[in-house]
Known about the structure:
Elements: H1 2-79, E1 82-86, H2 99-113, E2 122-129, E3 132-142, H3 148-151, H4 161-168, E4 182-191
Antiparallel strand pairs: 1-4, 2-3, 3-4
Helix pairs in contact: 1-4
Amino acid sequence: MRQKCLISMLLAAGLTAGGNVLAADEAQLLQEARGIPAKMVPKLLEVLQVEIDKSGHAGAISVCREKAPVMAKNLSAQTGWQIRRVSLKNRNPKAVPDAWERATLEDFERRLDAGENPTGIDKGEIVEENGQKFYRYMKALPTQDLCLNCHGTPERLAPGVAEKLKELYPDDKAVGYSSAQIRGAITAKKPL
């Protein structure tokens, strides 16, 4: 009986210690994941502004269409995370969220509606998909004034943008936004 009790105590202590290591690992993964948008978003905005200055808003659509996916791919290669942008109202057909991303984006909308500052909305967690564990992370991308030139209401779109969008994205759903709404998110996934 005493030996059983001792074994149970040791197992419990081991599980607790293991749980703390897991919690520490999860905290490290969250910190690492939070660094991804910090590496990508400022660079994307910089490249976008340069292109706007050079060829206007309609011409700068190519940045989000062509350069942003390349930036995400390069950052994925550098970090070991699978990185992309998604939205509930996608422009690019490749930006359709999977089930976890959709649920997270819907949660982001509820958090925004409850008064949370959209610049701080994010989520990270360990999930299991098809028997494989992953750490998944998403960071909300709220619309800024600059975004409204291509994602705003029809009267807010910059000259030439509506025509260019119709040409490039005939099924575009990514318009009608106002400032500080959640346009989408950067999502990152890492196998464990």
